Amino acid sequence: MTKSQYFILILILGLLSTISPFSIDMYLPGFPSIAKDLNSTIDKVQLSLTSYFIGISLGQLLYGPLLDRFGRKRPLYIGLLIYVIASIGCAYTNSVEQLIFMRLIQAVGGCAGMVAAQALVRDLFPVEKTAQAFSLLVLVIAISPMIAPTLGGYMVASYGWHSVFLVLGAITAFILVAAFFALPEGQLADRTLSLKPKAVVKAYWTVLSDKQFAVYAFAGGIATSAPFAYIAGSSDVFMNIYQVTEKQYGWIFAILAFAMIGSTQLNHILLKYYSNKQVMKVAISYQVVTGVLMVGGVMFGMLSMYALIGLLFIFLTGHGLSNPNASALTLAPFSKNAGSASALMGAIRMGLGGLVTALVSVLHNGTTLPMVLVMALCAAGGLIILQVGDRKKRRIKREKLSDSYSQ
To answer: How far apart are CA 65 and CA 190, in angstroms?
Structure first.
């Protein structure tokens, strides 16, 4: 593979992976306008985020077997087409309930890009190179939160929130064309795989039964759900509590997104000297410490807006370090069922993300506490699962050594 081919491949896979980040981030500055136009409240508009995460979670479970059965590209094309149609539906909705439903359909379509991109990384790169490939994907993905809210803020201010969804549909149509002409096939269709419910459930159970998958999928899933709490609560925190404008909020979001960009590049360097597990554990550990500082600062009234932005910046660097390593460790045991494994990993992450955004909405009390508290709990939960998993592995290893000596 030449450097130009490698660049084009990473770019297209990254664009496929950015569909959901753009869909999540780009309309955030429009929350107050959406609530006003649809005669609703911000906490109800936040549920459109929750429905999007639920749609991604369910959609990935659907696409996993389809990508293994029919190859990577055909299900991808269908999913992206559904997304384009649903985006138009979101733009012309006239109630918050309709918006919540159309966001669900939009997510079911758009998540095809995420699952296909992850499976293609596993198809096209050797196991020892997947973490680096995921880091580059996360770099492309991390750029989207810098662009999406800022662009969304200007669009909402100039053309209204409806324009955001029309632009999302147009961007995805462009990505669909690029994937059609320039994306490699990856793993070919496997007609031996059954799509009957019993066979699909069995395939997912086989993946979930792998101990390495279970530990890193849930540890990484819970820890990487923390930014979803930030996404769900940040527009309310900055635009209603700190009274910044749509444009100012877009720039704040962009600055904080830079935390993930820098850390993904740092991760690329660290992996030359440390293992995936070592980097991941350290990243989640300092997220726990930062989360405790944010919660304490809010509870005791010690955090100004700028102090909060600084702590959020530090916290979010951990996402750029833990996310690609968790993905690589989760998918490492799989080759034949990479599509199903990728889908199940994504479903777990987005399902947890949906719960997290719903929790921020339920705990909404007009303060910053729900957002930072849920972020801290996510990091702590991920670290606990990682520690418990490591202890179980060490115990099993000791038992095997003991059995070998006794024989």
So the answer is: 10
Q: Answer whether residue 227 shows pLDDT above 60.
A: yes
Question: Count H helices, E strands: the chain?
Answer: 16, 0
The rounded distance, in Å, linking the Cα atoms of 126 and 370 is 42
- CA-closest candidate to residue 56, choices 72, 27, 79: 79
Burial bucket for residue 88 (CB in 10 Å: 0-12, 13-18, 19+): middle
pTM: 0.73
- Per the rule left: phi > 0, alpha: psi between -120 and 50, beta: everything else, 40 is beta
Domain extent at residue 402: 7-184+196-406
Residue 196 is predicted with a pLDDT of: 79
Residue 406 has a pLDDT of 55
The one-character DSSP state at 241 is I
Mean pLDDT, residues 109-118: 87
Domain of residue 345, CATH code = 1.20.1250.20
The number of beta carbons lying within 10 Å of the beta carbon of residue 41 is: 13
Q: Per the structure, how many domains does the chain have? A: 1
Q: What is the per-residue pLDDT across 300-321, written as a single tens digit (0 to 9) for each? A: 988 899 999 999 999 998 888 8
User: Residues 6 or more apart from 94 whose CB is under 8 A from it?
Assistant: 38
**Would you say residue 296 lies in a domain?**
yes
Q: What would the pLDDT profile of 321-350 be if each residue is shown by its tens digit?
A: 888 888 888 887 876 666 678 778 878 888
Q: Reply yes or no on whether the pLDDT at 169 is more than 90.
A: yes
**Within a domain: 81:** yes
Instruction: Record the tokens describing residue 74, joined without a space.
Output: 């055909």
Contact 226, 108 (CB under 8 A): no
Is the pLDDT at 193 greater than 80, yes or no?
A: no
With CA atoms as reference, report the closest residue to 175 among 16, 20, 9.
16
Residue 2 lies in a domain: no
Residue 1 lies in a domain: no
